[in-house]
Amino acid sequence: MQHLKIILAEPRGFCAGVDRAIEIVERALKLYGPPVYVRHEIVHNKFVVEDLKGKGAVFVDEISEIPAGGITIFSAHGVSEKIESEAKLRDLPVIDATCPLVTKVHKEAQKYEGEAREIILIGHQGHPEVEGTSGRVKGGVYLVSSKDDVQNLKVKNPEKLAYVTQTTLSVDDTREIINALKSRFPNIAGPELKDICYATQNRQNSVRELAPLVDLVLVIGSQNSSNSNRLRDLAEEMGTKSYLINGPQDIETDWLENITKLGITAGASAPEKLVEDVISHVKSIKTATVETLKGVVEKTKFKLPVELNG
Length: 310
Prior knowledge:
Blueprint: E1 4-8, H1 16-32, E2 36-39, H2 46-55, E3 57-60, E4 72-74, H3 81-89, E5 94-96, H4 100-114, E6 118-122, H5 128-134, E7 141-144, H6 147-151, E8 161-165, H7 171-184, H8 198-210, E9 216-220, H9 226-237, E10 241-245, E11 261-266, H10 272-285, E12 288-292
Parallel strand pairs: 1-11, 1-12, 2-3, 2-4, 4-5, 6-7, 6-8, 9-10, 9-11
Helix pairs in contact: 8-9
C-alpha cells in the first residue's frame, strides 16, 4: 500500500479570542449552573457549539428568547449597540465574550465617527461581526467587499471618510481594497494594517507554506466560518486541491487515492480534537506518518471578564 505523509500547518486551530470565548461559557456554566444563554453561536464551529449545548448552554438568535434573569453571553463576534441596549433594558446579567480585537475595531469606528467622518467597513455582508460593528456606528456604514465596490461607492463628503475592517479578513485580503480606497479618496483615515487580526494572517501564511508541499489540503472548519473558507480558497489559489470539512465524517476515501502528501490545517474556531480525529480517520484508510511544519508560535492570551474573576 502507498505510504502517506501527513503535514500539519502551524499555527492552526483556536486563536486567543476563540479560546477566551469558549472558556467564558464553560466558566459561566460552572459558576452559575446551567442554563446560560448565548446570543448567536459563540464561535463558528458546529462541534464546539454542540459540545457546549451538551454542557447546558442554550444558543439563541434574539435577546427576546432569553427568560428574565437568564445569564446572557455575547458571542466572540460582538454585538450592535441595539442588542446591548435590549439586554440592559431587560436587566439581563450580561457577560461579554466579544474578542478584544473586535472591540478594538468598534472603538476605532466610533472614534472616526466622533471626528465627523463617514465610515467604510471592509467585510462580508451578513457576517455577525459586520452586523455588530455596523451597529456601533450611529450614522451607519458603507460596506465594501471588493475593489469593484470601492469604485461604485457614493459618499456624502469624500474628504471626511475613514475605514475599518472585519477582523477575520487578512492583510492580504484587504490590502488591495485599502489601496483602492486610498487611491479614490486620498484623505481617507484608517488603522494600520498591523491592526488586522494576527491569527487570521498567521493561519493564512502557514497555508501558503503548506500548499506547495502537498497534493491535497484538508481545512477543518465550519461552512459558515469566514476564516476557514478563506484557508480553503487560498490553497486552491496556490494550485493545490483543497476541501473544507467539519470533521472525519466528511472525508471521501477517493480523495486520498494517488495522494502521497496530505496537508491538514484548521480554522481559528476549530478545536485540535477534530485535527486528531481526522488524522486517526486518515490512518484507518492509509498507512501514514505525521509531521508538523515549523511556524509562528502564538503566545497571545486575553483576560477573562471581571464577572468570572479572570
